[in-house]
């Protein structure tokens, strides 16, 4: 993951680079322990933030934002040659998943703001697949974590009713899902969302 350092002074940039480097090494070791392939971006001009990468199970959408550029999207496309990779301009917000995420197989959860709806329209135009959509009133509430778990089925982690009561009412329409509200009040203070705090790995439970 690379992040934009625009607007930071020299000392702040150095501290951010050190922190990101430490996080990168820790994540690399964890992925090695799971015997997963690791692809590193050698191009210093490439930036790619995980919050800009939406994998639908069929294809990738990559948000072009302050944290992700075209070169980063190209490197991702080169790493996943079996999947289509389309870029989506992020007109407002931190990154693509600030206003959308996957809520289940073929289901995109999307915020109701104009920038979010414009991004969805672009994704629909670029894709050969027809996705269902679940529109929530609050963009930040559209960031949720979907899991298909053994003996549990469809499980969705989403923000709480205390944060976004109207959006939670929309999630409650997903009758086939096990809904688990998760508070994000502290993480949002540092631009954190539910997907920022999760890495989903398709491995057997005994790993």
UniProtKB/TrEMBL annotation:
Single biological process term from Gene Ontology: arginine metabolic process
Naming one, the record's GO cellular component terms include: mitochondrion
Q: Which GO terms describe its molecular function?
A: amino acid binding; dimethylargininase activity
List the active-site residues.
Answer: 95, 196
Q: Which domain of life is it from?
A: Eukaryota
- Keywords of the record: Hydrolase
Q: Which SUPFAM superfamilies match?
A: Pentein
Concerning InterPro entries, the annotation shows: DDAH-like
- Which family does this protein fall into? Belongs to the DDAH family.
Protein's recorded name: N(G),N(G)-dimethylarginine dimethylaminohydrolase 1
Q: Provide the species name.
A: Channa argus
């Amino acid at each position: 993951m690379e992040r934009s350092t625009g607007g930071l002074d020299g000392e702040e940039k150095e501290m951010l680079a050190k922190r990101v480097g430490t996080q990168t090494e820790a994540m690399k070791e964890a992925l090695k322990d799971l015997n997963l392939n690791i692809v590193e971006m050698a191009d210093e001009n490439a930036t790619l933030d995980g919050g800009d990468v939406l994998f639908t199970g069929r294809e990738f959408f990559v948000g072009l934002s302050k944290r992700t550029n075209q070169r980063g999207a190209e490197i991702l496309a080169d790493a996943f040659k079996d999947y289509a990779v389309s870029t989506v301009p992020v007109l407002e917000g931190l990154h693509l998943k600030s206003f959308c995420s996957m809520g289940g197989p073929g289901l995109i959860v999307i915020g109701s703001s104009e920038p979010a709806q414009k991004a969805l329209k672009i994704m629909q135009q670029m894709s050969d697949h027809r996705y269902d959509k679940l529109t929530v009133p609050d963009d930040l509430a559209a960031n949720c974590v979907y899991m298909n778990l053994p003996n549990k089925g469809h499980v969705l982690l989403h923000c709480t009713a205390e944060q976004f009561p109207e959006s939670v009412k929309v999630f409650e329409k997903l009758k086939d899902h096990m809904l688990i509200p998760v508070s994000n009040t502290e993480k949002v203070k540092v631009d954190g969302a539910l997907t920022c705090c999760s890495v989903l790995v398709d491995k057997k439970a005994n790993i």
